[in-house]
């Protein structure tokens, strides 16, 4: 039966060293809780690079293409109006709307992809450790035995909690 063991640290350096050592020791790293973003923690935990920038890029390209295509179709084909001899498909006039739709579609798609991937749906209660404040950091390890608790004590954890 797998349990989770939580080790509390007083510095980000201690958390980073413990995370790297736990990964080298072959322990399962469940999560790390910090009061602010810690540079290098994602590498220490062995997390892959996010694919969210690709979602943003593809949604922006799709939105921009759709906006430009719709404007050209509506002004040149569907509802062509001769206004002062200007061309039907005047691309400079379409740039502001295309830009806005590109940014809007990229932002919305990124937000939806982030919430879906993070499983942050409305009404979900977030996992928050009450002891992680502005001066505490926590490393959560999965353990089949008491090896993780002993490891965290040896790594310099101020407190080890087995819920």
Describe the structure in your own words.
The protein has 163 residues and is of the alpha+beta class. Helix content is 50%, strand content 14%. The protein has five helices and four strands. A four-stranded antiparallel sheet has the order 2-3-1-4, with helices on one face. The radius of gyration is 25 Å and the shape is rod-shaped. The mean pLDDT is 89.
**Largest sheet properties:** 4 strands, antiparallel
Tell me roughly what share of residues is in helical segments.
40-55%
Outline type: rod-shaped
Alpha plus pi helix count: 5
Strand content: 5-15%
Alpha-carbon distance between the two ends: 13 Å
Low-confidence stretches: none
Mean pLDDT across every amino acid position: 89
H/E element sequence: EHEHHHEHE
